[in-house]
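Why does residue order matter? Because the sequence determines the fold. Keep that principle in mind as you read this record.
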Amino acid sequence: MNFIGKAFNELQTGDSFGQTLTIENAHISQACGLFGDFNPLHSDEVFCANSRFGKRILHGPMTGAFMSASIGMYFYGTAVAYLEHNCNFVAPVFAGDTLTVTWSVEQKLPKPKVNGGIAVLQGICVNQRGAIVANAAGKIMLINRQAKDR
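Structure:
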């Protein structure tokens, strides 16, 4: 079997990874339908023009989903389960914002019974101005890569 993503035995504490995405109006509208949350802060531009934000904002869980997506891609083919995701939403995200998430491996917890272990991760998400919009912690169970798979 050929794996693309990093395996547990290939990770080092301090390794980092991430990705970038520009938020579009479509992301905000799709999140309304996806979450069933049509709060006017997400769905009504006229209402938002008079709000503290001045325009529609992205749902916080959508920012969290973007953050966790980079984990799924980095560990593609080696993940057993994404065990935990705790996210704090620090600032609003608007259409036109370019978000960059960076995760770092904080700790490795070997789990011989699963032929791998748990990676403890810390993540930060910033916009194009470098302002933090969210931070997160996560845990993912990974398998080891066997010599025959390399």
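The radius of gyration is 18 Å.
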